[in-house]
Amino acid sequence: MIEPPVFLDAYRVLLLGSGAREHAMAQSISASPRCDRLWVHPGNAGTEAWSVDQPLDWRNIEQLAGFVQRNGIQLLVVGPEEPLVHGLVDQCRLHPLLQDLLIVGPNAEGARLEGSKDFSKAFMQRHGIPTAGARTFRAEQREEAEAYLRQHAMPVVLKADGLAAGKGVLICDTPQEALESLALFWTEQKFGEAGAKVLVEEFLEGIECSVFALCDGQDYVLLPPAKDYKRVGEGDTGLNTGGMGAVSPPPFATPELMRRIEERIVQPTLQGLQSEGVDYRGFLFVGLMKVGEEPMVIEYNVRMGDPETEAVMPRLQSDLLELLVAAASGKLSGMELMVDPRFAVTTVVCSGGYPGELRLGFPMTGLTGRDYTEDERLFHAGTKREGADCVNRGGRVVAATVLDADLKEAARRSLALAQEIRFEGAFCRKDLGQDL
Ligand code: AMP
Ligand code: GLY
Asked: 273-282: b or e for each residue (b if 16 or more CB lie within 10 Å)?
């Protein structure tokens, strides 16, 4: 018989991050009857109710440890990748005051799946996980890289090895363009140290899907899948962004496709981590391309997706806090997820200029305009309080999610909800879900 995990009645939780992803997670955590107190840091105007009223920086482990101890925090949830890749979890594990702290997020070794595309490609190859073929080159190998590009099939994909905030991927249609792109990495140093190694990868043609597993080192639960819209312009045109919106579930993610993804990708990945001695506790986000009927990995991330989280969390009916505690303490076995069968569509309202030069600091209206229904959610991202006003302070400003049994209706209503938010320069994509 599977032993049910034993939970405390009340948890004090610290959630790190400042995006709509964290606002969405904070809403779900605070809705748990087991949530005694939640802090979100650095947060945004939407997470003010959970703000930290003293200096706190994850890079300063003594400061973090002091905060955790003084406030009796039992659970740390790391939202973004940066602290994970930089070894925050490892530092906590070594700190005498943090020995009992439960943590959602992998250690630095696990986080290499996102922190180094060269590492993650080699990992996939070692464990037979389907992915595009690729070769890695260093700046010293420039001539070799150029010769390789001249004879490579087009389009070809160039990727910075390290963290580049979603901007380190260039898709090139001609050898000429590929050679020019190589110069961005090695002549102009556009990606700094992250671009010191470049992956030259085969282009995959298909439709993208984001799949999320919450892992406890041994077991996992699969969260609802989502599709993210990365290009800034309608019809998937223009520059890549952090994500202009999301749909969960994408209708093409059939039970058969999800079964394949679990068997060929999620399970081998977690087994691969275990066999290499990595105790992976946290979210594993697999970015996939469905090529024909075959799922292939484009990238791993070691956190939840943004804006996917804003579509996934509202559909999650299970207690998120219980799931996070179970993942952090190695007790996910036997836990089942309850998921709202309705579609969730998230439309992201962006600042003028995004993803280029941003127009910031404008007062916003429409954020608290009326009573929202159960199926409408607004999540703040780049917002900040300035006196009585809320102003835009980042590229992606607010995520507007609507749940509806009908996908087209969810998309129409999500757009309408997003359009209630107004500030100078605000814009959003108006075609989300129309390709599905
Ligand atoms: P990444 O930062 O790895 O998520 O890549 C950003 C985007 O580039 C992805 O979401 C895809 O749309 C695209 N991309 C990355 N790798 C490939 C590939 N091998 N083939 C086609 N598109 C890709
Ligand atoms: N939406 C893609 C990401 O979070 O990386």
From this structure: beeeebbbbb
CA of 394 to the centre of ligand 1 (A): 23
Ligand 2 pocket at CB < 6 A:
166, 228, 243, 301, 305-306, 308
Q: Mean pLDDT, the chain, as a whole number?
A: 95
What string of DSSP letters covers 386-416? Answer: ETTEEEE-SSEEEEEEEEESSHHHHHHHHHH
Torsion sign across C-alpha atoms 145, 150, 151, 156: positive
What φ, ψ does residue 3 adopt, rounded to 5°?
Answer: -80, 130
Give the three-class secondary structure for 181.
Answer: helix
SS3 (DSSP) at 220: strand
Q: Is the pLDDT of residue 2 over 90?
A: no
Per-residue pLDDT tens digits for 7-57? 999 999 999 999 999 999 999 999 999 999 999 999 999 999 999 999 999
| 114 contacts 301 by C-beta, under 8 angstroms | yes
Host H or E run for residue 253: none
Tokens 């954020």 correspond to what residue?
367
Is the Cβ atom of 299 under 6 angstroms away from ligand 1?
yes
Q: Give the atom of ligand 2 at the shortest distance from the alpha carbon of 230.
A: 1
CA distance 196 to 191: 8
The stretch 58-85 carries a mean pLDDT of 98
Of the residues 171, 200, 210, 288, which should be mutated to test ligand 1's pocket, given the most ligand atoms within 8 Å of the CB? Answer: 171
**Three-state DSSP state, 344:** strand
Residue 270, CA distances (Å) to 203, 219, 221, 275, 345 in order: 26, 8, 12, 9, 29
Yes or no: domain 133-202 corresponds to CATH 3.30.1490.20: yes
Best residue for ligand 2 mutational test, from 120, 212, 228 (most atoms within 8 Å of Cβ): 228
Q: At what angle do helices 117-126 and 108-115 cross, to 10 degrees?
A: 100
- CA neighbor of 304 nearest in space, from 137, 127, 114: 114
Question: 220 near 332, Cβ under 8 Å?
Answer: yes
| Residues 273, 187 contacting (CB under 8 angstroms) | no
Q: Which residue's CA is minimally distant from atom 5 of ligand 2?
A: 305
Domain boundaries 12-108, corresponding CATH code: 3.40.50.20
**Assigned token pair, 294:** 């075959």
Q: Which two tokens stand for residue 85?
A: 């890749």
- State which amino acid sits at residue 369: G
Q: Where are the domains of the chain?
A: 12-108, 133-202
CB 111 within 8 A of CB 78: no
